[in-house]
Amino acid sequence: DSDDIEDVSLFDADDDLSRRSKKSKIRHPVASFFHLFFRVSAIVVYLLCELLTSSFIACMVTIILLLSCDFWAVKNVTGRLMVGLRWWNQVDDDGRSHWVFEARKVSAQGSKTSSEAESRIFWLGLITCPMIWVIFAFSALFSFKVKWLAVVVMGVVLQGANLYGYIRCKVGSRKNLTSMATNYLGKQFLRQ
Fold first, then answer.
1. What residues form the membrane-spanning segments (predicted)?
2. What is the DSSP code string of 81-95?
């Protein structure tokens, strides 16, 4: 019957990756490139914008487009390929919204399908760039560049949302995140 639909997991395609040769440290060079390209490009355009053009609108649109492309690429492609994490919103039949945070299960052989190099690239880009946007936010606020503040807030929000989503994927539920922070602080307190 041609109407039969098979439900296939998003991560099934990655199982054959674990069988491939592990000579290359970076298994997804295009994904790794674009993971950093849009992020770094938005920051570079923000820093050099006033030197390149006098049009604030052109700069703002370019930066927001780069940030949007980064958000989409990281959320939908690079997170899944580079570290095996993904998150999304699901609406149930009652119309209630549920956030789903998922981590790839370890394969049957017990081997990881993502490389250490890709993992470092992913997390370094994911953590560093939102911190840079926060610095830009304080800089715009204290230098009274109010028109740039809206652009910088977009950078903080879009990149911060991906950071939050992937931390939730890595750590687990909100309860686990809270208990992990409490346990860490408790251990630090006991050491002193």
1. 54-74, 121-142, 148-167
2. IIISEEEEEEE-TTS
The alpha carbons of the chain give a radius of gyration, in whole angstroms, of: 20
**Residue type for position 56:** F
Burial class (CB in 10 A: 0-12, 13-18, 19+), 12: exposed
Phi/psi for 28 (5° steps) reads -125, 75
Tokens found for residue 177:
């995140």
- Please write the tens of the pLDDT for every residue from 80-131: 999 999 998 889 888 899 888 888 876 555 455 678 889 999 999 999 999 9
Asked if 122 and 109 touch (Cβ cutoff 8 Å), the reply is: no
Given a contact cutoff of 8 angstroms between Cβ atoms, the answer to whether 30 and 80 are in contact is: no
* Alpha carbon separation from 176 to 99, 100, 180, 188 (Å, rounded): 15, 15, 6, 18
User: What does pTM read for this prediction?
Assistant: 0.74
Q: Which helix (H) or strand (E) holds 101?
A: strand 97-103
